[in-house]
Amino acid sequence: EISSIKHEEIYQVFFHPMDNEKHAYNDMLHQLKSMKQLNVIDFTKEFTDINHMQATKGRALDDLAQQLDITSSDVLAFGDGDNDISMFQYAGYTVAMENACQELKELARDFTLHNNDNGVAQALSNIFNLRLLSE
Question: Which pTM was predicted?
Answer without folding.
Answer: 0.78
